[in-house]
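Journal club side-thread
Mid-discussion, someone asked how the predicted structure for our own chain would compare to the paper's figures. Pasting it here so we can look after the session.
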Amino acid sequence: MSRYHALGGASLVVLGSALSLMPSATTAQTSLPAVTVEAPRGTAARPAARKPAVRSSARTPQARPPAANPAPSASLTAGITPSVARALLNTAPNGQTETTIDRSRFENRPAFSVADVLRESPGISIKQGNGPRDMGISIRGSNARNGFAIRNIVIFDDGFPVTQPDGLSRSDLIDPKAYGAIDVVRGPSSALYGNYATGGALNFRTRPGRSIDGVEYGVEGGSFGYLNNYIAAGKKIGNFEYSLFTSDARGDGFIQNSWFNTQTVNFLGTLHLTPDDRFTVKFINNNLETRLPIRLSLNQYNQNPFQRGCEFAGITACASVGLLNNGFNGGRTPTTAIQAGLGREDRRTIVGGRWEHDFDNTTTWRNQFTFDDRNISQPTGATTAIGDFPSYNYMSDVTKRGEILGMESTTYFGAWYNTLAASSDSRNVMPGGNARLGLLASNTFSSTSNYGVRAREEIKIAPNLTAIAGIGWETTILRGVNTAYAYPTTNVPTAVTTLISADRQFQNTAPELALLYKLNPEWQFRARVATGYGTPQVGNLFVDSQGNSGNNTQLKAQRNLGYDLGFDWTPNSALTFSLTGFYEFFRDELVTQATPANARNASFTFNAPKSEHRGVELAADWKFYPGWRLTAAYTYLDQYYTEYTETLRSTGAGAAAFNFNRAGNKIPGISPHELTARLGYDHMSGPLAGLGAFVEVQWKDSFYMDNANLLKAPGYELVNLNVHYNTDLKSDTFKSMSVFAEVRNVFDRTYVASANNIANTVQGTGIQDGALTLANTTGSIYAGSPRAFMAGMRLAFK
């Protein structure tokens, strides 16, 4: 397991729903009593072999006094409790390549979205989605070729699932200032996290109430009308601990028709009802109202990246969409985003509860239930998506600490069931502004259910060698009926319907094996082989290669087999270095790309029979002089098709189909090189104590946008500058104050923040259209922000 942490430190603070490596003065998220395990840096998330003694906090008792139910051995009694061992599976599972990004890395800067935070981890790529905080998050390129939202990653918030049963996650509800740490678990992980974990998992951990210990008010704002007011409150009162975060963010956006207004509430509360029983409740709510621009072609981006002066259609380098004049058939009128009123108005509500019961000092039973409702109204193009997507997720598991043949072991067994059923409409958008709705274009009734079991065993074969084995089995059932509405008679709203139904069942098994070897306190080595799987969404089954309602029900589940080999080197408390190489083999990889220009401007999903993904992840944290610190997160990705024949159809009279072999081509959307590096200085003593600054560099290499590898999105390098100041306040009311200012994109580079994959086209002669034609294909590019100035302040009250 990679023990690089963006913060580093000397003590391992293990708390109920999380674990992170950080200085002893920092407190991690908790839903259980705190247990501090003194361990050399770089050790696995277990007591060090040479230091079996563990000091428990005198202020917080163990979940059960040792005398009540003695553990099998003294070392296990002194070690990590089963409840904490279970929590580690969401944060830092043994044998897995993992990075924890601590709050200290982003609390002194304007952290508007996950893009400002997750770049601190290697293996992570970010692309702008459809909204201010809607980011496409990719681990090892897993989500880079998807058109919107997040796929191929399972996301948790304090251990509660944020990924719905259909595999869809969105980052709209994530305000980074609510969190104390984020765990990035990389590589195929379906043995532990189930369906859709082909790339890994993320766990966002809210700040614990005891670390807030009062109320904090913060405000930040800056260029393009950005303003965010937020409040954090938290406390530990007896056996109850809570934390509450709420924020209101709004702005004009830097692209025309991209203003936004979003409110977020995030609450976590834990009650220790008895020494053996803990109850945790979770509540998240996000309301989003935003306008959206239209994605550009590469040529439009080069001419007018921020879509200025695009109030009316027909202006050079302004994107437009053809809207049906009467809302159901007949002619279309080219309309810009601002004319049409394109945007999103969504609500997301998550309510969860968790009960943990200790049978004794060695065994914990956990039950967790989550209700997750996604309600959307999204006129993002020629049609609008409208629907309510309520889902239910239940899981139950047992974790036991014990011994097998005299060797320390942790055994885990769990089962789960989750389901989502929804009826969603696609309606035509008409000219007239304010996303005026026409008649129904299609309706999809869908249901997605997953159920399965998983088991995991960790055995300490020797004091410095741990073996991990796990397996998961899961059944996924996809059912749906798509009704497409056509209106063949001009100006007559009489519909002709076409029904396509799907009833698919997938069964997947995912084993994993890992070894964790600690040579000495400085060197740790890890090797892992693991599998992942991900089924398509019901909606993918009803969009054909031209982006119209059609039959795509033959889609298969994707699977990957991955090998990780890496080491962590910590020669002293000032330096941490981690290096991981990985090689993954995909079968039937699900790839999504924009379709040729058409009325719906939809995305099409297909299976690539075989592909290979390989790469290197590097993380470094070097405190080379008092107050100075250099960090770096670098990722190299080499991903290509090894077996895939693409069929393209020409248009017009005499249309024909032509096959093209893509074997050996790079998978589009994958940047081969990404780097985030930061050099900072913080004054530690004297009159200037608390004053600091850093310079940050972000580099993203160019990448292909199409399967034929004819067109590339340009790469970029950005530079950010930050100055901040933190001080304690000697007052009966105030505890501390923090202020910061930052310049983003100092050299005002124009860059591509998002480039969706585009489809190749072919002429009637069978010759593929070249890069010049592809560069005029719309529906792909959003520009990134020009130079921006931001500043903020935070006050902590007693």
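Post-session note: The chain has one domain: 11-797.
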